[in-house]
């Protein structure tokens, strides 16, 4: 009886430990205790009344607007053919594109609130077009601000005014709206591509601002920057991008994972304990790059007998991307129970196969 309890405990702890390890390498660790979380918009439906009427009017207005016209500055800055005419009003000024980000956010939130299929199509379409813009730039940039503005800024901000930076009009303020739109497209409309674009976009921003001294950075911030800090904080909370961006950490992932297995076996006096890990659901092994690719490769490598003969037939890695129904690990996969059930079942089956193999 004691042995059975110990085996069960070891299995459970190993499963829990590796899940923690997977998240540990990429997830943000909040220092303050979270006392409340907002409930998902998709869990609420308004009943007939003035609030629903106002929402329906807002939805009708969003449907009247043209996604291709919203995308004009993105296409133009990337040297791609425009698919719609430039809007008027504020969009005729050098802050063109800030409305586009607002529009993407509004459509994504309306999708969550109503499930409107046309607005979901527009969200997906706009994200896909922005991804094409990002690919055309080739350096992670995916914004509606003129590229020369950033070239000037990242060389040193030069003359800065309350609303002027690098020869442009509130460029960070404008970019914040794009970042927020992409994050909202992922959070509220379940568009995974939006998160990937936002990650690469943030990497571009970090690389550019890394060129600035602390004094230059502070000077740059004299120009209105909107909610850029909020968007970057939200992106960090969603992705926990930390280890994957630091080679000194992600290059040690495989070594650390093997050490974890050995340490747990020693601590539980279970030298032959089986070990199952699961990749993060948001990570696509075919498209992952950089630290993200290094981490998922490391997880599969522990089962390679040529690299780790001491773990032969004792470890298994479950590829969770096809099992996930959206969201990310650090965002609890949007609270989708099916994702947890799928991954848990996959890990359980993998463990059973390991035990079957040991009896042959």
Task: Please describe the structure with a list of short key phrases separated by commas or semicolons.
360 residues; mainly alpha; 2 domains; two-stranded antiparallel sheet; two-stranded parallel sheet; globular
Describe the model:
The protein has 360 residues and is mainly alpha-helical. The chain has two domains: 2-28 and 247-359, no CATH class; 47-237, no CATH class. The chain is built from 15 helices and four strands. The protein has helices at residues 2-24, 50-64, 67-70, 72-78, 98-114, 117-137, 147-154, 171-189, 192-209, 214-220, 228-239, 247-250, 253-267, 290-301, 337-359; strands spanning 164-165, 168-169, 275-278, 315-318. A two-stranded antiparallel sheet has the order 1-2. Strands 3-4 form a two-stranded parallel ribbon.
Distance from N terminus to C terminus (CA atoms, Å) equals 24 Å
Tell me the strand percentage band.
under 5%
In sequence order, what are the helices and strands, one letter per element? Answer: HHHHHHHEEHHHHHHEHEH
Average pLDDT number? 84
How many individual helices? 15
* Helix proportion range: 55-70%
Number of domains: 2
What shape does the CA trace take?
A: globular
Main β sheet profile: 2 strands, antiparallel
Poorly predicted runs are 1-31
Structural class: mainly alpha
Radius of gyration: 24 Å
The tally of beta strands, per DSSP, is 4
Order of strands, main sheet, comes to: 1-2
